[in-house]
Write a structure and sequence with these properties.
heterodimer; A: about 190 residues; alpha+beta; Ribosomal Protein L22, Chain A; 2 domains; three-stranded antiparallel beta sheet; 10 strands; about 30% strand; B: about 100 residues; mainly alpha; Non-ribosomal Peptide Synthetase Peptidyl Carrier Protein, Chain A; 6 helices; about 65% helix
């Protein structure tokens, strides 16, 4: 899997592909939401250019009806996932028809996440709530579930080695790998089609 | 509390639940039927932060079904207020 975390690029819509500009216009986003959407696509474009070279020019990162990013065009299928938080963009991509998911959780959320995890009945003991949250969001994305799936679910997030968490309660268990950095936690996962 | 007052209350709760309140401020001026996801980055952290705040403030339990109804087709302030009304009817928390 290809992974990258970038400072959110300046939201210059002229750098989007034609397909991406059309999608942005249809979505009707404004303000910070629009900037975020553009920054995610530009971050993806940057990473794909590094990995695919000139072939990346034909790839657009559009969105499925549920908002999940979808790579369109290019020579071969490509799974892609984006995450935005606190001025950063995370991109995960992988050639093929499988699924990938990534989530970035800024540590500025550390203060508010325990109340949310308590509400979801996810044991956390105030240990690294950002990692638990990133793993939950990553699992939701991998399974194409909305945030509502977290309510009334029997969720468990348990250590699966030094740098991974296993999420139970959203179908078959999902193992999310983790990278902890000073300002954020990154979680990512993949699944065959 | 009137429906309009509840809408204004929702605006405040959303801003308070946002990691970056400045980015969420447009919700203070948007129409009650505007899709919140078009106006601000209406992230999962904000959605669940609002659920926690609503349950605490209004003494209700928001179920998965209620939240799903509020988010179906995109959340708006009016849909969130309707969610609170449903929760008050169907899932008040004693105490």
């Amino acid at each position: 899997m290809w992974l990258a975390v970038l400072t959110a690029p300046a939201p210059r819509s002229e750098r989007l592909s034609d397909g991406e500009r059309d999608a942005l216009a249809r979505a009707g986003f404004r303000g910070a939401r629009r900037d975020e959407w553009i920054a995610g696509r530009l971050a993806a474009r940057w990473m794909l250019a590094r990995r695919l070279g000139d072939d990346a020019r034909d790839v657009s990162v559009l969105a499925d009806p549920d908002g999940a990013p979808r790579a369109s065009g290019g020579r071969s299928p490509l799974a892609i996932s984006l995450s935005h938080d606190a001025g950063r963009v995370a991109v995960a991509a992988q050639p093929g028809r499988g699924r990938v998911a990534v989530d970035i959780c800024a540590r500025i959320h550390d203060r508010r996440l325990p109340a949310i995890l308590d509400r979801l009945r996810v044991p956390h003991a105030r240990r690294n709530p950002c990692a638990i949250w990133a793993a939950l969001e990553c699992a939701l994305k991998l399974r194409r579930l909305g945030v509502t799936a977290l309510l009334d679910a029997r969720l468990r997030v348990l250590a699966a080695g030094a740098q991974a968490l296993r999420v139970s309660g959203l179908g078959a268990d999902i193992e999310c790998r983790l990278a902890s950095r000073r300002g954020f936690v990154l979680a990512w996962a993949e699944e065959a089609a | 509390m009137s429906a309009r007052a509840t809408v204004d209350d929702m605006r405040a709760l959303i801003v308070a639940a946002a990691p970056d309140p400045a980015q969420a401020r447009p919700v203070e001026r948007c129409g009650p039927d505007e899709l919140l996801d078009r106006v601000i980055p209406f992230s999962s952290v904000i959605v669940l932060g609002v659920v926690v705040a609503v349950e605490d403030r209004y003494g209700v339990r928001v179920t998965r079904k209620m939240l799903a109804r509020a988010l179906e087709g995109g959340a708006t302030l009016n849909r969130l207020v309707a969610m609170i009304e449903t929760a008050r009817r169907e899932a008040p928390v004693a105490g």
